[in-house]
Amino acid sequence: MYKYYIKTFGCQMNKNDSDIINQILTDDGLSLVENPIEADIIFINTCSVREHAEQRALGYISTLKKWREKKGIVLGVIGCMAKRLADEIITEYPFVDLVLGPDSYRKIPAYIKFVTENKTKVIDVEVGSESYTNIEKTSHRVSDFVSITRGCDNYCSYCIVPFVRGRMRSRPTDDILREMGCLIELGVKDITLLGQNVNEYSYNGINFPELLRIVAKKTGVFRLRFLTSHPKDFSEEIINVIKENKNICEWFHLPLQSGNNRILRLMNRKYTKEDYLGIIKKIKKNIPEATITTDIIVGFPTESEEEFNETIELVKQIEFDDAYMYRYSVRLGTKAGEYPPLPEEVIKQRLKILIGVQNQIIIEKTKQMMGKTFEVLFEEKTHNGTRGKTRGNKDVIVEQNIEPGSVFNVLITEIRGRTPIGRLT
Ligand code: SF4
After folding, report:
1. Does 116 share its domain with 197?
2. Same domain, yes or no, for 54 and 191?
3. One Pfam annotation, family name (predicted)?
4. Do 212 and 345 sit in the same domain of this protein?
5. What's the domain range around 232?
């Protein structure tokens, strides 16, 4: 029986894909190991969203050359970068045996057999139709993810995802319910519905708000969330469904990307700063306790100082609860990849300013948690106690040994750095 190891780079979607691969391989009789040294087969599940992620994955592949020559049986490079750089990987890293795109994972057991029997390589990077239905994913976590769509048709001008993950397709509602049912039976209490843009979900006349309503009611999961929500497709109906269903958490992750309309247009985001503010206003009016998080890219080609400052002003105005902040990374093949980039120093400086502003907001918002009580679902033991999450997706530490999966009300008694510390009430 072969032992395998998976190293995962990149976003939550990739982590979810690694879970799918785990299930496919364990169903085929292979066993997962935590240490690559013990493995006969190693997969590197790669990300292409930023150049840095690709460089890290390529660096990791290089470190496995000796392992492959001396001990390893199969080395597979899979995922988005495998799709984007298949030819380069095969030429520059000849010790790699499998190069597979995000839609080829069901075929991995057959490909392992093929390359070991024939001492050859396989490249399969076709994408476009796989939704990974009927996979019996298992989980020993308190919180987990269920993908509801794959691929993306939006072609934001900076983004490589539509090129490497293919057209957007929605997973059958019944299959989503089936997977959620299995996870809940295994003890999962917090499930996030996952997609590049969940708001575009559409299957047999069921749109995203309807899907949310169905899964919240039919599965009765303790906590339900969703990620990511493109502002151009955000409907008020989503707010209504959250208000109707107590198990849907009041957490909205709405990528802003830029606070300037010209840059948003160049990014092909299809909403304006005013549209975005309108959504935030509606959320805050209907659900005052909602937490709102975002993604922002700084240094997009041609972004002027004034345009960057508009982003800063908007960040200060909205006061996001958290933000993933990135510097623009050129992705060849995308529309924005044709524009001349800004100097690296300018981009770095802008990111530093944005992080400074947003961190201050987070510190202030975290301080506001002092003396308040939150429902916390505990997820894992830490060196100083147990970490749990509020409904608003905020981490809380209680300096006590608490069983993961338990739910308690926690009074916040101290803020350490950016982390709220509390005690059970
Ligand atoms: S919505 Fe835009 S940023 Fe998100 S995956 Fe699709 S193209 Fe990329």
Report:
1. no
2. no
3. Radical_SAM
4. yes
5. 143-366
- CB-CB neighbours of 360 under 10 Å: 11
**Would you say the CB of residue 49 lies under 6 angstroms from ligand 1?**
no
Six-digit token string for 206: 């069921």
Is the CB of residue 96 less than 8 Å from the CB of residue 77?
Answer: yes
Q: Is 161 in the pocket of ligand 1 (CB under 6 A)?
A: yes
Does residue 155 have its Cβ closer than 6 Å to ligand 1? yes
pLDDT one-digit tens code per residue, 142-167: 999 999 999 999 999 999 999 999 99
ipTM tops the 0.85 cut: yes
Q: Are residues 153 and 17 in the same domain?
A: no
Q: How many CB atoms lie within 10 A of CB 49?
A: 22
Residue 246 buriedness (CB in 10 A; 0-12 / 13-18 / 19+): exposed
Ligand 1 atom closest to the CA of 155, numbered from 1: 7
- Flag whether 137 is in a domain: no
Of 13, 14, 158, 197, the one to substitute when testing ligand 1's pocket (max ligand atoms within 8 A of C-beta) is: 197
Residue 259's nearest CA partner among 174, 198, 320 is: 320
Q: Same domain for 292 and 392?
A: no
